[in-house]
Amino acid sequence: MKKSFTLIVAGLFLLIVFVGFRGFVSTVSLNQATEHSNDFDAEDEGPTSVGETKVPEVEQQASNTPTPITMEKDKFQVTLSLQVKVHFIDVGQGDAILIETPSKNVLIDGGDRGSIVVEYLKEQGVNNLDLVIGTHPHADHIGGLIDVLQSIPVKEVIDPGIVHTTKTFEDYLTLIDAKDITFTVGRAGMVRDFGDGVNMFIVHPSSVNNSSINDASIVVRMTFGQVSFMFTGDVENEEEILRREYDLESTILKVGHHGSKTSTGSSFLDAINPEVAVIMVGKGNRYGHPHLETLVRLANSNVDIYRTDIHGTVIITTNGQTFEVNQKQPYQYNPPKIPEPSPEPASLAIQTININTASLEELQGIIHIGPVRAQQIINLRPFTSVDELTKVTGIGPVRLEDIKQESKVSIY
Fold first, then answer.
1. Which tens digits make up the pLDDT trace of 147-175?
2. Which segments of 245-357 does DSSP mark as H helices, in order?
3. Is the dihedral of CA 327, 294, 389, 134 positive or negative?
4. Which residues contact 135 (CB under 8 A, 6 or more apart)?
5. Whole-structure pTM over 0.70, yes or no?
């Protein structure tokens, strides 16, 4: 009995010692935690001390340039910054550009292979689009948007408002209406504020007419801090843009009309003064894009060139101060610096064919025009634009583009 009592007393003593020790440790831990928490709680007391590093409060800058914040303690480092990512998606001979801002998703055009675009968007985790811009109604720009509109929720579509008679364009408009998507006609001077210092400004068109669908292209300049992008669709009449005297200078240029010689003229290129040019073009395309003349102008301007037919999808990421391209090396093209060729004598220049006055035989000098189509052209006269040749049996968008590229047709 005495032995049992002794064991009970000893056990109680050990329990008291253990509980006392736990209480002491808890008190020390709580005091240490309180001391460390004081390092981060004084949010309204000016600069905050983190170890030996001072982290100043972030001031709102007028330029909206994102300010990286770095916090260090020993080897622990966290960098807070905003990024914009622009994806020039490889869709072959066409345009499809995804823009990811910190809070918005924007798609400019969809090529003519919508399944590729939809799959790419899903791979990037894009489940909705705040804005879609259809630069102009040619199939290699809006054809793929039909799959996009069917597969992904879209809040708004901006379109130049030019009429086109293809089934692709009709299906595109019908789908926008059926899904009750906000439809806006884009005009020069319009601004979209995407928040976080990202702004988009429409520089073209101010109006449209049916004489040239390419020249109805919506052209937009996007700015984020010190980095800017110019997206040009297939615009060719760049002089009209230059006359508006907008600020066009841009860090990155999406080269117009897949690198055609009819776009990216010297004056326009000088006004933009880009560091990087992206050409969206299909490998081995039948138009010969990009044309040698365009490559010469870009190379002589010391612009880094990236091509989707060579590099695949090109992704440019920027924090508003610097930018990175996902491709290691730009396309290397080193042409001799030679002056622009002088105009050919009138006798050697390409003779144009006025489709409103040409004879049956003369009309057959135009690509894709044989005796039957030549007679249809005569029966359908007068024409007010080259695009009206689609009224002729067998001339669709593809053959019409070939006729335009040949540059033989005139109307007067």
1. 999 999 999 999 999 999 999 999 999 99
2. 266-272, 292-300, 308-311
3. positive
4. 95, 108, 109, 141, 160, 217, 218, 219, 231, 233, 234
5. no
